[in-house]
C-alpha cells in the first residue's frame, strides 16, 4: 500500500521520509528515477511503499544549489553588531536568494539590543529602503523584541535559514523553539552541516513546520553566475531600468543609464548600488579566473 510523505534527509543514497503520522522511513528510490535522470530532493513530497520511493509529486520550486525543493520562504539573518551589520553581506545573500527565485524573503536583524539609540535609528532609516521588496524584522533574544513576529512568520512553513556567521542564528532558533536546545555556534552541526557533511541538507521539525540550514547560501558562492544576469536579481532596479538608453544596460558604465542616475540622485540607496557594482565585478573576475584554469 502506497503512502505519501516528505523527504527530510538524504545521506549516502538513503532518503529519510516522514509520513502524516510523523513516522520516518529509510528508503531508496526506484530505478526508474535514475533512468529518467530524476533525483528526488530534500523537501520533495513523494509516494512510497515499505521498500521504495515510487512517485514524485510536482514541485513548487526546485533549487540546484542548495539541493532542496518546495521551500516556502527564506529567513535571512544578519547581525546588527558583533559582527557589525554589513550591507554587502546582505546584498550578496539577497542576490543568491533572488537567483534561486525563493519568495518571500524575511530579513531578520539580530542583536539590536547592542545598538545605541542613534545607531538603531540610522540602521532602520537605511533598511527602510529594502522594505518595499522584503519584510524586515528587528530582533533581540535578550529583550525578546521581534521574537513573536518571527514566530508567527515562520510557523507551519518550510523555512530556509541563511545568514552571516556569528549573527546569532542558533540563539534565535533556540528562542523560537527551546526543544531543539542547539548550543551556541553549533547550529551548522545540528542542521546537518558538520565537518564531513558540507553538502548535506536536512529539514528538521521547527515551529509546526520545518527549517533547513543551507550550505549553498552560506558559502556565498557565485561560481555559476554570469555578471550580465546580476541586474535581474536586484528587483529595485527593475522599474528604473526600463528608462535606460540601452535595453541590455548593465548599470555599470553605459551612458543614459537610469539606474546610475537614480543612484546619483540618491533614489537608490548608495550602499545598495555600490554593492551591486562590487558583486558584478566579483562575478566577472571569477568567471575569467575559472576560464583560465580550464585551459
- What letter string, H or E per element, gives the SSE order? EEEHEEEEEHEHEHEHHEEHHHH
Distance between the termini: 54 Å
Radius of gyration, Cα only, in angstroms? 21 Å
Tally of structural domains: 3
Major sheet summary line: 6 strands, mixed
Distinctive features:
295 residues, 22% strand, OB fold (Dihydrolipoamide Acetyltransferase, E2P), five-stranded mixed beta barrel, six-stranded mixed sheet, disordered C terminus, alpha/beta, 3 domains
Task: Give a verbal description of the structure.
With 295 residues, this protein is α/β, with parallel strands linked by helices. It has three domains: 3-58, Nucleic acid-binding proteins (OB fold (Dihydrolipoamide Acetyltransferase, E2P), Beta Barrel), CATH 2.40.50; 68-218, P-loop containing nucleotide triphosphate hydrolases (Rossmann fold); 227-294, Ribonucleotide Reductase Protein R1, domain 1. It contains ten helices and 13 strands. It has helices at residues 31-35, 87-99, 117-127, 147-154, 169-176, 187-190, 215-218, 235-241, 258-264, 270-294; strands at 3-11, 14-19, 24-29, 45-48, 52-56, 62-63, 68-69, 73-79, 105-110, 135-138, 158-163, 204-206, 209-213. The strands form three sheets. The chain has a six-stranded mixed β-sheet with strand order 10-9-8-11-13-12, with helices on both faces. It has a five-stranded mixed β-barrel with strand order 1-2-3-5-4. Strands 6-7 form a two-stranded antiparallel ribbon. β8, α2 and β9 (105-110) form a beta-alpha-beta unit. α2 (87-99) crosses α10 (270-294). The longest helix has 25 residues, at 270-294. The chain is globular, with a radius of gyration of 21 Å. The chain starts with a strand and ends with a helix.
Amino acid at each position: 500500500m502506497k503512502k505519501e510523505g516528505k523527504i527530510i534527509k538524504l545521506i549516502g543514497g538513503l532518503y529519510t521520509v516522514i509520513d502524516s503520522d510523523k513516522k520516518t522511513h529509510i528508503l531508496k528510490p526506484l530505478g526508474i528515477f535514475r533512468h529518467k535522470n530524476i533525483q528526488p530532493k530534500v523537501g520533495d513530497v513523494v509516494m512510497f511503499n515499505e521498500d521504495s520511493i515510487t512517485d514524485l509529486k510536482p514541485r513548487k520550486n526546485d533549487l540546484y544549489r542548495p539541493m532542496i525543493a518546495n521551500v516556502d520562504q527564506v529567513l535571512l539573518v544578519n547581525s546588527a553588531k558583533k559582527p557589525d551589520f554589513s550591507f554587502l553581506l546582505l546584498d550578496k545573500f539577497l542576490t543568491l536568494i533572488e537567483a534561486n527565485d525563493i519568495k518571500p524573503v524575511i530579513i531578520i536583524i539580530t542583536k539590536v539590543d547592542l545598538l545605541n539609540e542613534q545607531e538603531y535609528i540610522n540602521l532602520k532609516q537605511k533598511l527602510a529602503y529594502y522594505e518595499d521588496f522584503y519584510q524586515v524584522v528587528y530582533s533581540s533574544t535578550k529583550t525578546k523584541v521581534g521574537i513573536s513576529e518571527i514566530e508567527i512568520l515562520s510557523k507551519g512553513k518550510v523555512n530556509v535559514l541563511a545568514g552571516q556567521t556569528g549573527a546569532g542564528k542558533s540563539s534565535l532558533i533556540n528562542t523560537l523553539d527551546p526543544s531543539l536546545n542547539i548550543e551556541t555556534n553549533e547550529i551548522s552541526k545540528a542542521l546537518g552541516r558538520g565537518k564531513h557533511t558540507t553538502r548535506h541538507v536536512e529539514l528538521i521539525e521547527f515551529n509546526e513546520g520545518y527549517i533547513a540550514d543551507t550550505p549553498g547560501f552560506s558559502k556565498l558562492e557565485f561560481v555559476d553566475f554570469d555578471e550580465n544576469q546580476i541586474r535581474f536579481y536586484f528587483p529595485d532596479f527593475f522599474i528604473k531600468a526600463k528608462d535606460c538608453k540601452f535595453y541590455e544596460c548593465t548599470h555599470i558604465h553605459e551612458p543614459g543609464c537610469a539606474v546610475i542616475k537614480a543612484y546619483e540622485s540618491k533614489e537608490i540607496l548608495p550602499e545598495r548600488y555600490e554593492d551591486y557594482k562590487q558583486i558584478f565585478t566579483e562575478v566577472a573576475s571569477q568567471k575569467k579566473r575559472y576560464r583560465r584554469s580550464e585551459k
